[in-house]
Design brief:
This protein is an alpha/beta fold. The protein has 14 helices and 12 strands. The protein has a single domain, classed as Alpha-Beta Barrel (TIM Barrel), CATH 3.20.20.210. The protein is globular and about 60 Å long.
């Protein structure tokens, strides 16, 4: 099977030739992995580990003094006016927000005057060039990054203040989410028109849970965030495309809601989170109505289990989540720089060789 057919088969709740494979790492972990395998370029690495999908996004051609937030290598001011700084750690580094541009705004009128990003800052014609380049040697499943409403909004407003807005200033919270929805929905519409059917799935990311539980009550989520996600999923389905939603943490209280509004694939399956179902229970309860991407724990399993234990855990995940299709194996988030490369390869090689 081609990578594209492999994923399409799994998402039709059928078993492909092997489990489809996903990939997310930090920059440092990717470099460690390439050095371990004696591989020089990214695409060669992706083929070696069996990575079956590819992400695309229209090329940014906007103001040069602003950054697109997807560019994890640089700090500075992004297209939303959010400023980030680099923070070093023992194994590399990360970025954290240093300025929330909407933090002190008091009313909706101020928000209307704010300089929101423009879709004219993106070259949508670049999408087909990207896809053609990716598919030179094989046919990959193509995923468009489609943004967020809650997460992007609190990046601009500040996390604590935005949750306060939900309770005391819902008009401000809804206006910020409306502006972000308008931008991201325009990106999706223009991308789908430009790509002429060559995009297979649209990704939306909104972390609404922690390892201890949801960041707000399920009732608040249903009132404030669920309607925006339904509109996102409706757009995807209008184009006949699958929807992929990423939220870390323990979000089991709203999984039925996500299915109700049209979610196709849930990511990343953080089984270590409090009250999150086991892989077996998740598959039993939701597996006939929902597909899954993720599952391999990057916090306690991949860095610390032995190579043999990781092989067994990989097989267990495929057995429990991949039966009758509906599963793409991937880590629960970016593989970190302190994860030994031989353990990462143990996961991928086991998946490549394992048959249902």
């Amino acid at each position: 099977m081609t990578p594209k057919i492999r994923i399409k088969t799994a998402l039709e709740h059928k078993e492909p030739d092997r489990v489809p494979i996903g990939y997310v790492t930090t920059r440092e972990a990717k470099q460690n992995l390439k050095q371990f395998l004696n591989i020089e370029n990214d695409e060669e690495l992706f083929k070696r580990i069996g990575f079956d999908y590819r992400n695309v996004f229209p090329e940014y051609i906007g103001p040069k003094d602003l950054l697109l937030d997807f560019n994890w290598d640089y700090a500075g001011k992004d297209i939303w006016g959010v400023e980030r700084r680099n923070v070093k750690n023992a194994f590399g580094g990360h970025r954290e927000i240093s300025l929330y541009p909407l933090k002190d705004m008091k009313d909706v009128e101020e928000l209307e005057k704010y300089p929101w990003p423009k879709i004219e800052w993106f070259d949508f014609g670049s999408l087909n060039r990207q896809i053609d380049a990716l598919n030179q040697d094989d046919e990959y499943y193509i995923i468009l990054s489609g943004g967020s409403v809650f997460e992007q909004s609190w990046y601009m407003r500040g996390f604590e203040q935005f949750l306060i807005d939900f309770m005391v200033s819902p008009d401000i919270a809804n206006k910020i989410m409306e502006k972000n929805f308008d931008f991201w929905s325009s990106i999706v519409h223009e991308s789908m028109r430009a790509a002429k059917g060559h995009i297979d799935m649209i990704f939306f990311g909104d972390d609404i849970a922690s390892q201890e539980g949801m960041l707000m009550s399920a009732e608040t989520w249903r009132k404030m965030i669920k309607p925006w996600h339904k509109r996102f999923y409706d757009i995807s389905h209008m184009y006949g495309k699958k929807t992929l939603y990423h939220s870390c943490g323990s979000l089991e209280p709203i999984i039925e809601d996500l299915i109700e509004i049209g979610l196709d694939v849930l990511n990343p399956l953080q089984f270590s989170a409090k009250n999150f179902p086991s892989s077996e229970k998740l598959k039993e309860k939701y597996g006939s109505r929902l597909c899954f991407l993720g599952g391999m724990d990057i916090q306690s399993v991949l860095p610390f289990y032995s190579v043999e234990e990781i092989k067994k855990e990989t097989e267990r995940l495929i057995n429990s989540l991949g039966k009758n299709g509906g599963f793409i194996l991937q880590t629960t988030h970016m593989i970190q720089a302190d994860t030994p490369p031989e353990k990462i390869i143990a996961m991928y090689d086991t998946a490549l060789k394992y048959t249902y």
